[in-house]
Amino acid sequence: MVPGFAFAAAAGIEPASAAALEPASAEPGSVQFSEAFIGTGKSTVDVSRFENGVTVLPGSYNVDIYVNEGRISRQNVQFRAVDGLKNAQPCFHYADLVTMGVDVGKLDATVVNPQNPCISMSDVSPEATVTMDMGELRLDVSIPQASLLKRARGYVSPELWDQGEAAFLLGYNFNAYSVNQSYSGPRASGGNAISTDGTPVQVQSGTYYTQGPGGVYVPSSTGNYMLSNTGAYVPVQIGSYSPASSTGYRYNDINAYLGLNLGLNVAGWRVRSVETGQWDQKTGRTTWHNFNTTATHDITKWKAQFTVGDSYTQGIVFDTTPFRGATVYSDDRMLPDSQQGFAPVVRGVANTQARVEVRQNGNLLYETTVAPGPFVINDLYSTGYGGDLNVTVFEADGSTHTFSVPYSAVPMLLRPGVSRWAITDGQVRDTTLQNGKPYFVEGTYQRGITNWLTLYAGVQSTYRDLYHSYLGGAAVNTPVGAFALDVTNSHTTFKGADNSLSGYSARLSYSKAIPTSGTTLAVASYRYSNSKFLTLSDAVQTQDQLTSMHSVDWAAPTVLRSRQRIQVTLNQDFGGKYGQLYFNGSRNTYWNGMPDATTYQLGYSNTYRRVNYGLTASRTYTSSPVFRGGRYDNQFGLNISIPLGGPSSKNAPMLSAALQHDDTMGNNDRVGINGTFGDRSQYNYNANVNYADTGNSNSSTTASGNMGWQAAYGNLNAGYSYSSHYQQGSVGASGGVVVHGGGVTLAPQIDLNSPIAIIEAPDAKGARVSSSGQTKIDGRGYAVATSLMPYRMNDVTLDPTSTSMDVELQTTRLQTAPRAGAVVPLKFNTVSGRAALIRATQPNGEVLPFGAEVIDANGNSVGTVGQGGQMFVRGAEEGGVLTVHWGDSDHEQCRVNYQLPARSKGQVSILDVTNVMCH
C-alpha cells in the first residue's frame, strides 16, 4: 500500500503535501473547500487546515534534492524558521551549491562562501524557488540557467557515483544436451573409419576427406587432419570400428556445459572471473577452463579504469590482444550521454534443435540450445572492440555448420576536446603457444581536435626485439560521410633468422547515415602493403612455430596472414509499408597461398497487415583441398510469422513458417508455433515440425518442442526433438546469486559487468521490481534489481500490487547512480501491521462527520474520517480504541472500541472491514 491512501483516500481527495518555501503571489497547492459539499447535517468540521498543504516545521530532514527536475543527491538538509513565512526555509552550504552546478563565481562572495553555514536560494537568484514535498521527502530547487555552469546534457556528478557494498556474486548458465542417433543402410565402400573423440565416421570412397559431427577433416602431410571449418590442424585416430549391424550404426552421447561468472566487490575493487566446464559422456572427460580473472578499480579523477589480471587490450586502434598484466584506460561510460561516441549481435539459423557455441580466439564465450529456425544471441559479454566471433551450430542430426561474425572497431571520430587512451603492460595470453609467451607494452591515444578532425596514434613493442609497430591516423567528418585512415609500420626480428622483416599496412574505414532516405552504409578496408607486414599476433605465433620446427624460414609456418580484407554493410529503411533491406559482404585474401574467403548476405523484411515476412540470400566462396579448388555455397530462405489472435489479445501465439535451401545441405522446411502464457508472460513455449531433403533420396521429418520459465529467482528451459534417425533432449538453467550484508539473495540473471541494486523492503514479500522483469521481493524482504546503467541516474521502483494488505510502502521509487559493477543497497521503508477499514456511526445513527480527526490510544493523530464515516486503521492486530473529535464540546467527540476476527496461522492477509458504534 502506498502512503497517502489512509483516511484521505477514502474521502476521495489526495492530501496536499507540497509546500512552497519561497513567497509567491499565490501559493502553489493552496485550495479552498466549500462546507456546502462536505457538511454532514448538524455536524460540520473545520477543514481549513488542509487548504495550504503541509507546513514545513524547523528541523533536519533527509531529502532527495532535485535541481530543475534532475536528481542531485540525497542528504540531510537543515530547515530554519524565517520571520513572516509560514514554512521553515532550507539552509544550503557552499559545497551544496557547487554540487548543484551553481556558477558561484558570479555571486556575492561576502554571502556565498564556504564560511556561511546557511545560504538561501534567494542569495543565488531572485528567481530561484524551492518546494518541499513532505510526503516524498523531496526538495525541488528551480534555478535559472543563467546562474548555472554549462554542463553537458546527461551529466551526473561523480560525488553521486556509489561504489556500493561488499558482496560476492555468482552468475551461472547450465546446459545439458543428449542425442541418440541411429543410421541404417549399406556401408560406404572403402570401409575405413576415422574416430574423432571416439566418434566413428565413414571415409567416403574415392575421396580423401571425411564428414563427421566435428566438421570436414582434411589429411595433412604430418598425418594430422585439418578441421576445415576453422583452419586448425587437430590429431585424429585412424582405425576401424564395429558397427551395431552390417547395415548401420548407433551413436549416443550426452554433453553438459556449465558457465560460471564469479565476482567479489570489496573496498571499491571488483574481482571478476569467468569459468567454463564441459563434460562429455562418450569420452568420459571433464574439462575446466578459466577464461579470465581480473581485478578492477575506478580512477575517478582521470575518468578511467585500472585493471590487473587476464584481460584484453581495447582493440580500437590495434587489433585486440589477450594479455596477462595491467592496463589503465579511459572509460567512456563515465562521460555524460552527450559526450559518448560493444559485443555484436549473433544471428543465425538452426535446422534442428541445436547446440550453439560462440568462441573468440579459441575461447568458449557462450553456449546455449536453440529451437529450429532463426535465432538471435544478444547477451554476450563484451571482450573488447575487436576479434571475430566464431559461431558453431551443432545440429541434432550430427551435422555442423560454422560462420564468423565480424567484430571490428568503429570509425575513430571523437567530439572536440574528448580524449580516449589506454596503456597496457603484460604477457601475451594465448593457450596455443608452446614455446613461451612474450611480454609487450601497448599505448594508444585519440583526441578530438575539431568537429571534423580526430587524430590518433599507437605503439606496440615486445620486451625483446621480436616485434615493434607504430601507427598514426586521422578521422575526418565530411558532408559525404566519416572517413578514418591510418598507416601502421611493423618491424619483426625472429630469433635465429638472418634478417628482419619490415612492412606497412593501410586501413581505411567509412560510414555514412542518410536519415532522409533511411540509408546507413559502412565500409572497412584493410590492405597490407606486402607479405612482410605482421601484426603482433602474427609475429608471436610465427615465432612459436619456427621454434617448434627448428627452422629459420619465416614463410614456412601456416599462420593466416591477411593480405586484404574488405567489409561492407548496408542497411536501407524504405519507410512505412515498404520494409527494410540489408546487405553484408566480406572478402579476405591471405599470403602464402592460403585459401580466400568471400561471403555475401542479402535480406529483406516487411509487414503486410499483421503478417511479418522476410527473404534472405547468401553466397559463400571457399577455396580448400576438400573441394579440390574453390566452391560457391548458395543459401536462400523465406520466413513468415502470423499472430493467432487480435491486436489486443494477451499472450497470443505466433504461427511461423520457413523455407530454406542450401546448395550443400539441401532443402529444409519448417512450420511452428510459439508464444507465452501466465499473468506476467513468464512461461514460453514453441513447437516445430521440420522436413529436410538433402538429395539422393535422403529426407527426414523432425518434430521438436521447448518450454521455458522465467521465474523470479532463475530461468529454466527444456526441449525435446524426434525423428526417424535420432532423438534429442536438453535442459538448461540460468540465474544468479548475491551474498551481501543481509544474507543470500537469488536473481533471475546477473551481468557482472553491470551494476545491480540489493533492494531491502521488510515484510513486502511479493512486491515486484518494475525494472527487472519477473524479479520480486523474497520472504526475507530482499530482491536484486538488474539492468542498471553505470554512472547514470537510475530509477528503481516497486509494484506493491502483490504484497500483503498489512504492509505499506512509504515510498515506491528510489534513485541511484552506481559505479560500474557496484552492488548498491537500496532500502524501501515499510510500515507493517494489520489493516482494517472501520465504518463507524454515532448513537443517533448518523455517520461521523467528514474530516473529523482520529486519535489513537497513545494520543497521536493518525488521520481523518473519510466519506460515509470510514476510517482506515493499521497496526492493531486484534482491535483497539480510537477517539474521534470534530469540536471542543463533549458532544462533538466519541470513542470507537473495535475488535477484529482472529486469524489462523498462514491465513492470507486481507483488508478486514468492520462496522462499529462510536460512543
From TrEMBL:
Signal peptide feature range: none
Membrane topology, as annotated: Multi-pass membrane protein
Start and end residues of each PapC-like C-terminal domain: 837-902
Keywords, comma-separated and alphabetical: Cell outer membrane, Fimbrium biogenesis, Membrane, Signal, Transmembrane, Transmembrane beta strand, Transport
Subcellular location as annotated: Cell outer membrane
Annotated GO biological process: pilus assembly
Record-linked InterPro entries: Fimb_usher (IPR000015), Fimbrial_membr_usher_CS (IPR018030), FimD_plug_dom (IPR042186), PapC-like_C (IPR025949), PapC-like_C_sf (IPR043142), PapC_N (IPR025885), PapC_N_sf (IPR037224)
Record-linked PROSITE patterns: FIMBRIAL_USHER
Residues annotated as domain PapC N-terminal: 32-176
Pfam families: PapC_C (PF13953), PapC_N (PF13954), Usher (PF00577)
GO cellular component terms listed in the entry, alphabetical order: cell outer membrane
A molecular-function term among this protein's GO annotations: fimbrial usher porin activity
Superkingdom per UniProt: Bacteria
Coiled coil: none
Chief localization: membrane
Family named by the database record: Belongs to the fimbrial export usher family.
PANTHER family noted in UniProt: FIMBRIAE USHER, OUTER MEMBRANE USHER PROTEIN
Protein name: Fimbrial biogenesis outer membrane usher protein
Gene source species: Dyella telluris
